[in-house]
Amino acid sequence: GVQTCALPIFSTGNELVPPATRPGTGCIRNSNGPMLAALARSSTREVRELGIVRDELSELCARIQQAESADVVVLSGGVSEGLVDLVPVALQQSGFREIFHKVSIKPGKPIWFGMSEREGRRRWAFGLPGNPVSSLVCFEIFVRVALERLTGNTLTARTTHWAKLGRSEEHTSELQSPCNLVCRLLLEKKK
Predict the structure, then answer these.
(1) Cα gap 27→49, rounded to integer Å
(2) What is the C-alpha to C-alpha distance for residues 100 and 53, in angstroms, rounded to an integer?
(3) pLDDT, tens digit, for every residue of 61-94?
(4) Phi and psi of 97, rounded to 5°?
(5) Which residues contact 102 (CB under 8 A, 6 or more apart)?
(6) Low-confidence ranges of the chain (pLDDT < 70)
(7) Pairing state of beta strands 16-17 and 121-128?
């Protein structure tokens, strides 16, 4: 079954500073962490805010390891294709298999979704874009629906959102709802 432990949320990026800190040159406030936490709490979900993680592979892997007790992990930033967009690599090195990376929606294209299965236990990871509006859109379309399906909560009415999946081993050029794909995988019986 799905554990009821708090949902870990953390933001990635060398440019991020805590919301109460005045940003220096080249820095921005971490708005995604508090926003995603508020969105998750609105789904009656307990949240564990894990703060800001620098764009370093070892630090990302260590922080993902700190979230080992949770069945769902949410990260924001670091999922595009830049040199320091290391979240997909860190999640894969932490045992998550990519289900899809990128969907044809704007805002929100570079979302990453994956699954880990160890010792009969499934875990899910969502790598949301660093852009705050993109992160919000992806949370609403993918994460909230997944959390509601996993917990049996259906607090919000949802409509179907269709998008063509980007690069993916199993689903290349297949027109389907990525949201429905996520939900189907979440509910799929263990093989």
Answers:
(1) 20
(2) 23
(3) 999 999 998 989 999 999 988 888 999 999 999 9
(4) -100, 130
(5) 109, 110, 111, 112, 165, 166, 167
(6) 1-5, 44, 153-191
(7) unpaired
